[in-house]
Amino acid sequence: MLHKPRWSRQSAHTFFMLEHTACGTPSAWREVFRAPSASNKCLPRVFQDVSYDSVPMAIESAEQALQILHIEDSPADQGLTRIILRRAGMACQIHPVDTLEALQKALLDQSFDLILADYHLPGFTAVDALALVAPLDTRPPFVLLSGAIGEAAAVDIMRLGMTDFLRKEDIARLPTVIKHALEMHEAYRAREQAVAELAQSERRLAELAEHLQSSIEKERAAIAREIHDDIGGSLTSVKFDLAWITRNAPADQPLHAHAVAALEMLQHALGASQRIMMNLRPPVLDQGLVAAVQWLAESFERRTGVAVQMRTSSERIAASPEVQLVAYRCAQEALTNIGKYAEASRVEIDLSDREGFLTLEVSDNGVGMTPAQREKPRSFGLRGLHERARTVDGWLDVSSQPGNGTSIIVSVPLPDH
To answer: Which of 26, 43, 293, 395 is the most exposed place for a label (fewest CB within 10 A)?
Structure first.
């Protein structure tokens, strides 16, 4: 149970004079507080009666007070710190400790708004104290108040994670230093919270993008099946009927000419449906990624007349269907962009599964892109490829210079076999 210190009328008078004298200086105050290490007989009576290890030195109400943990073994410096903060009108409650055991207990018992520490203490230093404070979830600002080290050494110590440093000779500036430390701590916490919220928002966007891509691919596969089963089957049946008419109708009859024309249009419709089906979900993917990309390259070369050279590390690449689909879509988008914008005469495709990564590179010798073109608004092609790669823990790299072509590389880690 805590006991209030018993102050005599003379002790109270001494404390009042010490707090309110206009000519008091830190050095003069410290001379008043200075006492032999073995006893406090030379201290004013008010500090002889206070147990600094058990009774917090309170200023104003505890509910609104700033909770300060003061790591200091000198009662004189503890009292001086209290007076400095009191004279500054700072509402605070100071909890002094002078051993590592007491520090550990204090940190377990409650949370603090600020930690104020001397450097050299019996059996430990402020660095040891900081090591106990560092793992805390809500780590308070840590201010070093010491006269035993120079500023150069203090800067090195602060790099370990302390918030600020003040020499004891400048203790009159302590309220300002504490205020600054609290402001810095609040700004740091606000920044950490903003970074955490931004990271959470990015995760949600990535999850949404992954869900959308998955939904799109499922819908594409469903549409491709319907085109193949329903539309393709119906068009094939009509083709057989028109072929029968052309075989059986006299060649000089208008019916024959109409049947031939209809058969040509139907053949075009069948070709279009097959092309749409292949773009939606090419069945060639079932034969493996190498075959699918090879089919893409050959189709692009036939359609555009641009020479395509393809190199692979092996005939078959073992990868999950999701990874193969991402690589295929990246190759498809890259070739589409080359056909639209690059004005290239040569395209190279490299597909490799070496060193535990699936790597697809599509490069051309076209006009290239400027940074502004890559970042122009509502340009979602490359951004879509970035998001596709992220869905399988991969990444995309785009390098391009005006007049020197463009290279798009997608890399995806492969599981160990």
So the answer is: 395
